[in-house]
Amino acid sequence: MKKSLAHAAFGILALALATTASAQVKPEDQIKYRKAGYSFMSWNMGKIKTNLDGSYNKDQVAAAANAIAGIANSGMGALYGPGTEKDVGAQKTRVKPEFFSDKEGVTKVAIDFNKAANNLAKVAADGDAAAVKVAFGDLGKTCKACHDQYRAE
Amino acid sequence: MKKSLAHAAFGILALALATTASAQVKPEDQIKYRKAGYSFMSWNMGKIKTNLDGSYNKDQVAAAANAIAGIANSGMGALYGPGTEKDVGAQKTRVKPEFFSDKEGVTKVAIDFNKAANNLAKVAADGDAAAVKVAFGDLGKTCKACHDQYRAE
To answer: Number of structural domains, chain B?
Structure first.
């Protein structure tokens, strides 16, 4: 839990501050990279779901959960810099304007997401499918909460 | 080291076998997801490089290295299934035909990549910038080795 909170705190820090490192990434690439992160997490969520629905491979689930947590903890907030609130070049984005104004709400969904992702990785390492099912559902709810509030249809 | 090798072995297993989970992913989506994984790793490699070239933020580097390792260990080999050796729909791929025939060579670059990614994550957790520089260079070499052999210009 202490580690999860530390991770969440780091995610928020990265969300709040455009770091030197991220400032050098063009807005078009920021959109590309954040979409890549969500896309890759989506593949791994799908793998976990398939395992929960069918025959359960502990190693595959643990690896998928670690990939999701690694991405969740990587400070993706830095990929929402100025100029990324609308389509840029070839990169389309569905982010709503509210994402850039509702700091309190975004901080909450980001913390919830980080905590749930880290919890899933922890639970998946233990290999108990029933516990993974709960943690997976909890993580899915945090994805949906952000999509409902900040992603256009 | 034992953990790194276990991770590498899992990556290879995933590379060799199209699992039930991955078999349900359409070829077009397999290409989309593998490109997303490389793209997201690229962002994190860039962040580490920026830290090594400028002021060093241990937490940011460790998080980036964990994201890379999480993706590297996620069994991306399953995203090179039948039908993904050329462009599908909107998804373009630069993978060379040799990738699908040279099993021994691909296994080697995959193992080297997994080991280097796990080593970087381990070293980054310790926070020694000089050691991270070496591990980062080693990982970059494994990326380049695969690109040189199996990625078209």
So the answer is: 1
CATH number of residue B78's parent domain:
1.20.120.10
> Whole domain around residue B131: which residue ranges?
2-150
- Confidence (pLDDT) at B24: 83
Q: What is the pLDDT of residues B76-113, one digit of tens each?
A: 999 999 999 999 999 999 999 999 999 999 999 999 99
Instruction: Say what the ipTM of the complex is.
Output: 0.87
How does DSSP classify residue B80? Answer: S
Q: Which of B120, B122, B1, B16 is nearest to B76 (CA)?
A: B16
**How many Cα atoms within 13 Å fall on the side-chain side of residue A133?**
9
Rg value, chain A, Cα = 16
| B120, pLDDT greater than 70 | yes
Work out the percent of chain B whose per-residue pLDDT is above 70. 85
For testing contact with chain A, the best of B71, B76, B114 (most A CBs within 10 A): B71
Q: Express each pLDDT in A99-149 by its tens digit.
A: 999 999 999 999 999 999 999 999 999 999 999 999 999 999 999 999 999
How far apart are alpha carbons A143 and B120 in whole angstroms? 29
Q: In the numeric block, which tokens belong to residue B82? A: 């039948």
Phi, psi angle pair for B83, to nearest 5°: 95, 0
| Interface test mutation site (partner A, options B24, B35, B41, B43, max chain A beta carbons within 10 A) | B43
Q: In one letter, which amino acid is A85?
A: E
- Identity of residue A143: C
